[in-house]
Amino acid sequence: MRKIIVLSMLTLDGVIQGPGGPKEDTAGGFKYGGWVAPYDDEVYGKVVEKELKQADYLLGRKTFEIWEDYWPKHADFWPGINDGTKYVLSKTRKKSDWKSSVFIKSVGDIKKLKKSKGADIQVWGSSELIHLLLKNDLVDELRLKIHPLVLGKGKKLFDNGAMPAAFKLTESVVTPSGVIIATYRRAGKVKTGTMGV
Questions:
Q1: Is the entire prediction scored with pTM above 0.90?
Q2: Residue 21 in contact with residue 50, Cβ under 8 Å?
Q3: How far apart are CA 123 and CA 134, in angstroms?
Q4: Other residues' Cβ atoms within 10 Å of the Cβ of residue 163
C-alpha cells in the first residue's frame, strides 16, 4: 500500500495559499503571494532539496493548472517533477500535454491508487483536495513548514470537515529564520483524558 504524504508550507493561522510568488494564486483577492521567500535559509533549502526528489504526485485541478504552465519550463530547479506521475483529481479535465499526467475523478479512485503498488504519493498545494483527504482519513503523513507569520485570510490547510485523528511527531527542526519543519505520521484515534489526574 502506498502512503499519501501532504507537504505544506503554512502560516501560524494555517494559510497555505500562494507561498511561492505574488501571481501564484490570487483567488479571493489574495495579495500576500510569495510569503515564503523571506524565510529561505540553508537549513530550509536542504529540507526542500530532499523533498524535490522524484516522486508520484496527487494534485487538485487548480494546483495542477498552475504547475502545468510553470514546471515544464523550470525543470532545472525540480528535475523529477516532469517524470513523476501526476494524478489529478478533476471532474472537468481529462488530458494534458504535460507528460505523466493521469486524471482521476473520485475518492474511490484515490483509494484504489493508495492500494496500488508504487512509490508513496506526495500532495502539494491543493487545499480542497487536502480537505477531502482529511475528511476521508486518507492522509498517512503531514510534512509541515510552519512559518512565523499570520496573514488573516487565504486558503487554509484545515477546515471543519477533517476526520478526528491522532498524529505522531517523527522528525522536526527549527530553521535559523524561525520556520518549524515537522513531520507527523498517522497514529490512530484521538485519545482524551483529564489534566492533573
A1: yes
A2: no
A3: 12
A4: 13
